[in-house]
Amino acid sequence: MSETPLENVVIIGSGPAGWSSAIYAARAQLNPVVYEGAITEENRMAGTLPLGQLALTSEVENFAGFPAGNLGGYLDSALPASRRGMMAPHGGEGVTGPELMELMRQQAVNFGTRVITDDIARVDFSQRPFRLFPSEGGELQAKCVIVATGASANWLGLESEHRFKNRGVSACAVCDGALPRFRNQELVVVGGGDSAVEEATYLTKFASRVHLIHRRDELRASKIMAQRAIDDPKVMIHFNATLEEVLGDDAKGVTGVRLGSTVAGGGETTLEVAGVFLAIGHTPNTAFLNGQLETNEKGYLVWKKHFRTNTSVEGVFAAGDVADDYYRQAISAAGTGCMAGLDAERFLAHG
Ligand code: NAP
């Protein structure tokens, strides 16, 4: 007889989609287990630590139900001291990404969700029950799986960018911006979307000046967020500009950047900066699936039924950014997580 545990529903991923699906599955008495990700340097570099991308952001102003205000007392009462102690003190200006994620995690745990701090390294969806292989070894089986692994920050792929990763090059301003090496220094942010303007504005807390490098002549970011960056005297926007090379040396790390131009005859310029932050979009975290679920041309998982979270394998559902190349909002991820939890419940009830 096999020793392999058989789960009703395994949820892979611990962003808003993962926790919302867990809350619904747990309240439906499905006894779900969440693989929240492993705490490793590799995951830190890839932006795939537990609690997902929101754990890497600052204030969250657009998650309905969390207007600006002081949540200090509420956080103390809602979270166990062991988790509360790991977090930064509440700033009193509304919910932050890490706070929101801890609250969602706790809500799922309150309803009986089991949480494993490990990755699922590999899956086999070719047979039922499905087989899943955690990074730490062993195997589990599942009648139903919800994939909620999100997406990770992209890199430009420059050799010099790779060389100075962790020594002045980062894809997460909120994680790394407060480091001493960036204080009162000039910094570069690459990108023109909401992430780029948000990161540029955030970095002005520490930097003497932030250069926003964007390849086109207009920002992609939403009007309200773009305007904040445009109005900020510490942010200097370089339109039609590309990052060609990160300059530096082994002793100091990043010391500057060489910029190219997308305009004919634009020439090259160099800037003396101490840090480079990439904010050029994301790639869905699907490598562990090894092609077993259908994706679109951008690599995002595809829902096979209209407004249902069904993937191309019956009994496997997808929620959040891993299946969303369009909205990519915390609240839409949470919404599709709810849908996946309900879809899983109905699948298990009716087969
Ligand atoms: P995004 O909207 O896809 O923007 C990516 C930016 O990077 C674009 O400006 C793009 O340039 C640029 N880019 C892409 N590849 C590049 C390359 N190889 N070289 C140079 N530039 C490159 O991604 P995002 O800013 O991460 O936002 C993703 C989603 O999250 C969006 O839906 C956004 O609204 C949301 N978000 C929301 C908030 C918030 O509301 N607080 C904060 C962050 C993100 P082009 O413009 O030329 O394509």
Alpha carbon gyration radius:
21 Å
| Count of spatially separate domains | 2
CATH superfamily of the largest domain: FAD/NAD(P)-binding domain
- Helix percentage: 25-40%
Characterize the largest beta sheet: strand count, sense, and whether it forms a barrel: 7 strands, mixed
Low-pLDDT segments, ≥5 res? none
- What is the number of helical segments per DSSP (H or I, 4+ residues)? 10
Return the CATH architecture of the largest domain.
Answer: 3-Layer(bba) Sandwich
CATH class of the largest domain: Alpha Beta
Give the H and E element order: EHEHHHHEEEEEHEHEHEHEEEEEEEH
Structural class: alpha/beta
Basic shape: globular
Bound molecules: NADP nicotinamide-adenine-dinucleotide phosphate
Using the coordinates shown, work out and report the CATH topology of the largest domain: FAD/NAD(P)-binding domain
Distance between the termini: 24 Å
Q: Mean pLDDT, rounded to whole units?
A: 95
Number of β-strand runs: 17
What share of the residues does DSSP label as strand, in percent? 15-25%
Features:
FAD/NAD(P)-binding domain, 2 domains, 10 helices, 351 residues, binds NADP nicotinamide-adenine-dinucleotide phosphate, alpha/beta, single chain, 5-stranded parallel beta sheet, globular, 7-stranded mixed beta sheet
Model description:
The protein is α/β, with parallel strands linked by helices and 351 residues long. The protein has 2 domains: 6-153 and 282-349, FAD/NAD(P)-binding domain; 159-278, FAD/NAD(P)-binding domain. 26% of the residues lie in helices and 23% in strands. It binds NADP nicotinamide-adenine-dinucleotide phosphate. Residues 62, 156, 190-196, 198, 215-216, 220, 279-282, 328 line the site of NADP nicotinamide-adenine-dinucleotide phosphate.
